[in-house]
Amino acid sequence: MTPPQTSGDTDLGEYARPAASRTDTGTLTVALREWLALTLGPEARPRVTDLSVPTEAGMSSDSIMFTASWNGPEGPVDRRLVGRLAPRDDTMPVFPRYDLALQADVMRAVSAASAVPVPEVLWFEDSADHLGREFLVMERIDGEIPPDVMPYNFGSWVADGTEPQRARLQTSSIQVLADLHAIPEPWSACPRLAAGAGPVAAADALRDHLAAQRAYYEWVCADGPRSPLIERALDQLANTLPEIPGPAALCWGDARIGNIVYRDFRAAAVLDWEMAALGPREMDLGWMIFLHRFFEDIAAAADLSGLPGLLRRDDVADEYTRLAGHAPASLDWFVTYAALRQAVIMFRIQCRTVTFGQAEAPDDPDDMIMHRASLEKMLAGTYWTGIDTGGSRP
Asked: In tens digits, what is the pLDDT along the chain, a chain of 394 residues?
């Protein structure tokens, strides 16, 4: 996710650009063509054209877009494709490891076992000999994606839509989660997400996930400042961990509308599976609710109206109950957990801005968390006061 920019701020979307954007497109074109010839065989005589690096690329990995043509067994093939490349170490990656093979496995499993619209994964390449690092190639889906810069609620095709259109977008997005979480025995569908063989309980998966978040935070601050707020949040959430009954679901992880391609305000493709995990389905619901609130709080700080009627907490819960037949539990805990997870990510990203000379380190490390005030209020139990949560819930 690319950090949003408000008037007068440093353009955080420009620091530490993904390594692909610093590589000549002609060089990438030749390398991809040579790799396709090895993959498909010389008789395929592949061609690569129209290669570009999206300027709105996020901070977690590199993407390239291109058209590939080749001679297939049944005739000419022409495909518009997207390549996802692991980041290089010199870009100070946001996460400690980028398992593109796992992403490919998850996307293929989701496509095979559910109605979730996922781009077809054509290839995964584990050798760094061709493009300098491993990569996967998937089909390119046309449509519109809610932007991060400027945030979609600042003014975009989402904001310009009618209320019925946004309602359709919301329902379609929640349907994605309902369909994903309906995958039976996800530990079998995606065995690499499970610690061992056999069924995984939601409560056990949540404890493991929280422990992984603490380990991720320790990695983030290993050679830099620490955040008292993040540490307090980790401890408070561990002490109030809800006991969620039943089996774990396959969770998307980065479940937000900015990772969905829409056509006519309906989900056409679900992207970015690098944070996929087994866990309570409420992890995805909390993330979807909070990431919208993240942008809403930024809009409020900028004196903009935002989209307060979209993805309201209780509306999401009620609609998910209707679509999935499951009433979410302990949702405020999971929204706060999402705010914590986002805080660790934003702390890492801001550390990058300091390392690359794009920002000065603040006196208080907690000021590197863009939504510090929101997380503090959530921990205090005062965040939702005065916010219209919608729905029929108290």
From this structure: 544 443 333 333 333 444 444 568 999 999 999 999 999 998 999 999 999 998 654 555 689 999 999 999 999 999 999 999 998 877 788 999 889 999 999 999 999 999 999 999 999 999 999 999 999 999 999 999 999 999 999 999 999 999 999 999 999 999 999 999 999 999 999 999 997 778 999 999 999 999 999 999 999 999 899 999 999 999 999 999 999 999 999 999 999 999 999 999 999 999 999 999 999 999 999 999 999 999 999 999 999 999 999 999 999 999 999 999 999 999 999 999 999 999 999 999 999 999 888 889 999 999 999 999 999 999 999 999 999 999 875 4
Reduced to 3 states, what is the DSSP secondary structure of residue 92? coil
Same domain, 132 and 168: no
The SS3 assignment for 52 reads strand
Size (the chain), residues: 394
93 in the same domain as 60: yes
Which entry of 254, 272, 314, 366 is annotated as an active-site residue? 254
Please indicate, yes or no, if residue 389 is contained in any of the structural domains. no
Cβ pair 87, 98 in contact under 8 A: yes
Instruction: Give the closest residue to 17 by CA, choosing from 358, 326, 377, 331.
Output: 358
Give me the residues paired with residue 277 across strands: 251
* Spatial distance between the Cα atoms of 175 and 287, rounded to a whole number of angstroms: 15
Same domain, 52 and 94: yes
Nearest alpha-carbon partner for 371 in 331, 349, 348, 340: 340
CATH number of the domain that residue 128 is part of: 3.30.200.20
161 residue type, one letter: G
**Last residue of one domain, picked from the residues 106, 139, 172:** 139
Q: What total of structural domains would you count in the chain?
A: 2
Whether residue 247 sits in one domain with residue 111: no
Residue where a domain stops, chosen among 85, 117, 139: 139
Residue 367 known to be catalytic = no
pTM check: above 0.90? yes
* 123 and 193 share one domain: no
Q: 388 in a domain, yes or no?
A: no
The pairing of beta strand 277-279 with beta strand 249-251:
antiparallel
What is the secondary structure of 247-275 as a DSSP string? B-EEE-SS-SGGGEEEETTEEEEE---TT
Instruction: Answer yes or no: do 262 and 366 share one domain.
Output: yes
Q: What residues make up the domain containing 112?
A: 12-139
